[in-house]
Amino acid sequence: MERVGRMFRSCIGLPGIAAVFVVLVSSALQWHHVYAQQPGGLVVGYYQNNGLCDADVEGIVTSTVQQAMQSDSTVPAGLLRLLFHDCWVEGCDGSILIDPTPSNPNPEKTANPNLTVRGYDVIDQAKSALEQACPQTVSCADIVALAARDSVILSGLSNQGLTLDMPTGRLDGFVSSAAEANSLLVSSQSTAEQLTQQFAQQGFSQDEMITLSGAHTIGVAHCNEVTGRLYNFPGSPNGVDPTLDPIYAAQLQAQCPPNPDPSTTVDLDPITPFVMDNNYYRNGVTNRAVLASDTAIFEDFQTQFASNLNSDDDLLWEQKFGDALVHMSTLNLKSVNDGEIRTNCRMVN
């Protein structure tokens, strides 16, 4: 796969209001250049540029993700979520990968929001290949970030000629706490105001929050996150959340019974569940968002403008999503004082 560019870019013009909006949110593009210039910070092609590994580090990760996708089309959604959940707690340091041990029986992956996180095996496979190619060189945190990058690209985010580079040079952290994850990770029941505040605490604008929510264009939700909107909804004469399109609500009821098996899931996007596109927004503006937190974004007057614009302009959303994803991948990076290169992603050295 051809190595992708530093950030999403296109020579296609955006007419009218879309062009104005790009100017308003251009800070998401500008920070990247500043960040890349910081001494010791992340850079695109870190391993190649510094002569740390003769092998194609990024190509090995891409090949691993491609192979995993051939047997499981849901892999990209799992790897994208893995990056989000890793970076949101302790920063992008691979802390979500750490297994329980006698000294730390409750790491991040045992937290309630992380019990359904997937993709650990893909990270392990990439790490194994990289350890053979260049031992003790590539961090697990970088593998998680590159795998997420590959997931969105291979799922179609580059179909319009846009390109994305993921900077590398992260270190793996030592700390992993389920209690911290339970406290910080975003709930599927959050309001738009809560989401805005939670993202702001991590340094994201409200527009970046709306943009990153578009990741729900792929993947699934477990029915136990949805049934509260389908049965016995408070104040509803028919028991269904009135903010749901009635026909869509009936479709969801057919898939999610009142007391579903914990493993039963429903596609977040019923139209193109495996394609990175802006159908999340098209579904949302027509009252067909699965999760209550997603519906809240489309119902809240402060977020409606950006949500509607993203539903109308696929290219605009793709550009913004690429920049926001890279921003996400740079949260709270570890230094040589509190980080390392793990030889096994599931445990500290």
TrEMBL record:
PANTHER family: PEROXIDASE, PTHR31517. Gene3D superfamilies: 1.10.520.10, Peroxidase, domain 2. It is an enzyme of class 1 (oxidoreductase). This is Peroxidase. Keywords: Calcium, Disulfide bond, Heme, Hydrogen peroxide, Iron, Metal-binding, Oxidoreductase, Peroxidase, Secreted. Its EC number is 1.11.1.7. Removal of H(2)O(2), oxidation of toxic reductants, biosynthesis and degradation of lignin, suberization, auxin catabolism, response to environmental stresses such as wounding, pathogen attack and oxidative stress. Its cofactor is Ca(2+); heme b. The keyword Heme applies. It comes from the Eukaryota. It catalyses: 2 a phenolic donor + H2O2 = 2 a phenolic radical donor + 2 H2O. It comes from Sphagnum troendelagicum. Residues 41-349 form the Plant heme peroxidase family profile domain. It is found in: Secreted. Signal peptide: none annotated. Belongs to the peroxidase family. Ascorbate peroxidase subfamily. Binds 2 calcium ions per subunit. Binds 1 heme b (iron(II)-protoporphyrin IX) group per subunit.
